[in-house]
C-alpha cells in the first residue's frame, strides 16, 4: 500500500514560467491565507476514496491585497482543491474550489464570496476548468447542505438522538439532488469532457448508468483515468454477479481464512460440526452498531449451541480492532481486507450487498438462511433452531 505524505509550503510568488502556474484573486474574503491541496489526478481516482493511497501536497498561500500565485512542476495532471483557513464559510469542505490542471497550464482563478455566504469561482486560461467551476458553483449550495446535515447526522448518531432517522432521510434527499445536477449535465452534454468530470464526482457506482451514454472522446485526455476506474468497477460488478449466482440457501458455504485482531488465521471449516453465524458488518455502519446489544444477548443465550464470527468489511484494521474492544464484542472477529480482489473478498463470495448481513450455516457446512439488515426474523430463526 502506498502511504501518503503531507508536504507543507509557504508560497507568495513564483517566477518560473515553464511550470504549471495558478494565479488567485479574491473578492469579499476576509481570510489572508489559502490552502491548496495538490494530488496526482490518476492516483486520486484509482484510490477510490482512500486518502492513504495517494500522496497529497499542501501549499499555504499568503494573500497580498487578495492575490497570490502558485507555481509547481509536474509531469502528470493534478487535482487541486482550494480552501480558505477557518473563519470563512469557504473553510467548509463543501465550499472548496476544485481544479484539474495539466502540465504547463497557466490558469487564473477569481474567487468571491456569494451573497448567501458560500464561495463562487471563475476561471480564465482553461476552458475545461472554467466549465467545471461553473458547474460546481451551481451545486455548491447543495454541497453545503450536505456538509451541514452530515455533521448533524454524525453528532446525532454519537448521541443516540431520536433525530437520526429524519436526518438520514434528509441526507438521502440531498444526495439525490446533487446527483441530479451531474446527471442532467451528462444527459445534455454527452460529448463534453465535463461530463466525464460529473462521472468522476458521482463515482462509478452511481454513475455507471450514464457511462455508456457518453462519447468515447471525452475519456481520451485528462479523464482517461475515469474510464479506467469505471471499467474496473464494471469488471468487479461482473465478478460479483458470477459469485452471487453461486450462493443460495442449501448450498455449500464458501470456506475462508481471515485474520483475527491478534493476527491469527480463522477458518470457517475449523468450526464444522457446529452451527455458525457469520455477521458481515462495519464500524461505519450505524445499523450494525445499533444492533450489537441484541447480538450480545443472542450470543450469551445460544453460545453453547452455535459459534458467531463477525466479518468486518470496509474497515481499516486499527479502527476495527479498537471498535471490537470498545464495544466489548465477545464472539470471534475477523476482517475482510479492503484491498482484496473481488474473487478473494469473503463479502463478495457470500454476495453481501448491504450491512449488516447475517448468514446461518449448518453443522454440515451448508447455508441455512441469509438475513439482510437488522431484522427480527434472524432472532426468531435462532429461537426456532435452538429452543
At a glance:
The protein is α/β, with parallel strands linked by helices.
Question: How would you describe this structure in keywords?
Answer:
Glutaredoxin, 387 residues, 3 domains, elongated, alpha/beta, 38% helix, 10 helices, Immunoglobulin-like
Textual characterization of the structure:
- By secondary structure, the protein is of the alpha/beta class.
- The chain folds into three domains: 1-125, Immunoglobulin-like; 142-245, no CATH class; 257-386, Glutaredoxin (3-Layer(aba) Sandwich), CATH 3.40.30.10.
- The chain is built from ten helices and 16 strands.
- It has helices at residues 41-46, 127-159, 164-188, 193-202, 204-211, 224-244, 286-302, 317-327, 346-349, 376-386, and strands at 8-11, 20-27, 33-40, 56-62, 67-72, 78-84, 97-101, 106-113, 119-124, 257-259, 265-267, 275-281, 306-313, 332-336, 357-361, 367-372.
- The protein has a five-stranded mixed β-sheet with strand order 1-4-3-6-7.
- The radius of gyration is 25 Å and the shape is elongated.
- Mean pLDDT is 89; it is low at 1-17 and 87-91.
Write the layout of secondary structure elements.
Elements lengths: L7 E4 L8 E8 L5 E8 H6 L9 E7 L4 E6 L5 E7 L12 E5 L4 E8 L5 E6 L2 H33 L4 H25 L4 H10 L1 H8 L12 H21 L12 E3 L5 E3 L7 E7 L4 H17 L3 E8 L3 H11 L4 E5 L9 H4 L7 E5 L5 E6 L3 H11 L1
Parallel strand pairs: 1-4, 2-8, 12-13, 13-14
Antiparallel strand pairs: 2-5, 3-4, 3-6, 6-7, 8-9, 10-11, 12-15, 15-16
Helix pairs in contact: 2-3, 3-4, 4-5, 5-6
What is the number of beta strands? 16
Query: What is the average per-residue confidence, as pLDDT, rounded to a whole number?
Result: 89
Q: List the strand order in the largest sheet.
A: 1-4-3-6-7
Structural class: alpha/beta
Amino acid at each position: 500500500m502506498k502511504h501518503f505524505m503531507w508536504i507543507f509550503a509557504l508560497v507568495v510568488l513564483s517566477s518560473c514560467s515553464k511550470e504549471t502556474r495558478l494565479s488567485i484573486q479574491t473578492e469579499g474574503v476576509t481570510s489572508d491565507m489559502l490552502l491548496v491541496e495538490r494530488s496526482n489526478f490518476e492516483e486520486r481516482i484509482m484510490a477510490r476514496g482512500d486518502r492513504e493511497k495517494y500522496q497529497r501536497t499542501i501549499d499555504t498561500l499568503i494573500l497580498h491585497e487578495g492575490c497570490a500565485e502558485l507555481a509547481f512542476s509536474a509531469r502528470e495532471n493534478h487535482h487541486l482543491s482550494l480552501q480558505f483557513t477557518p473563519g470563512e464559510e469557504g473553510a467548509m469542505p463543501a465550499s472548496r474550489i476544485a481544479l484539474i490542471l495539466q502540465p504547463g497550464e497557466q490558469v487564473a482563478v477569481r474567487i468571491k464570496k456569494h451573497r448567501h455566504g458560500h464561495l463562487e469561482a471563475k476561471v480564465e486560461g482553461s476552458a475545461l476548468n472554467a466549465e467545471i467551476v461553473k458547474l460546481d458553483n451551481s451545486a455548491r449550495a447543495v454541497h453545503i447542505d450536505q456538509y451541514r446535515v452530515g455533521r448533524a447526522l454524525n453528532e446525532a448518531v454519537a448521541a443516540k438522538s431520536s433525530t437520526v432517522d429524519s436526518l438520514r432521510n434528509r441526507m438521502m434527499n440531498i444526495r439525490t439532488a446533487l446527483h441530479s445536477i451531474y446527471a442532467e449535465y451528462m444527459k445534455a452534454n454527452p460529448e463534453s469532457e465535463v461530463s466525464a468530470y460529473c462521472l468522476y464526482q458521482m463515482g462509478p457506482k452511481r454513475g455507471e448508468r450514464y457511462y455508456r451514454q457518453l462519447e468515447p472522446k471525452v475519456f481520451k485526455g485528462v479523464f482517461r483515468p475515469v474510464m479506467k476506474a469505471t471499467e474496473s468497477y464494471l469488471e468487479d460488478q461482473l465478478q460479483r454477479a458470477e459469485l452471487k449466482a453461486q450462493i443460495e440457501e442449501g448450498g455449500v458455504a464458501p470456506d475462508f481464512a481471515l485474520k483475527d485482531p491478534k493476527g491469527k488465521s480463522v477458518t470457517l471449516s475449523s468450526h464444522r460440526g457446529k452451527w455458525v453465524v457469520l455477521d458481515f458488518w462495519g464500524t461505519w455502519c450505524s445499523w450494525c452498531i445499533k444492533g450489537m446489544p441484541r447480538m450480545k444477548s443472542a450470543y450469551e443465550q445460544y453460545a453453547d449451541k452455535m459459534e458467531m464470527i463477525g466479518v468486518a468489511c470496509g474497515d481499516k484494521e486499527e479502527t476495527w480492532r479498537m471498535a471490537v474492544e470498545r464495544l466489548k464484542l465477545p464472539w470471534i472477529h475477523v476482517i475482510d481486507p479492503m484491498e482484496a480482489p473481488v474473487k478473494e473478498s469473503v463479502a463478495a463470495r457470500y454476495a453481501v450487498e448491504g450491512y449488516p448481513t447475517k448468514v446461518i450455516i449448518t453443522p454440515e457446512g451448508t447455508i441455512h438462511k441469509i438475513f439482510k439488515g437488522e431484522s427480527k426474523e434472524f432472532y426468531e430463526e435462532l429461537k426456532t433452531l435452538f429452543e
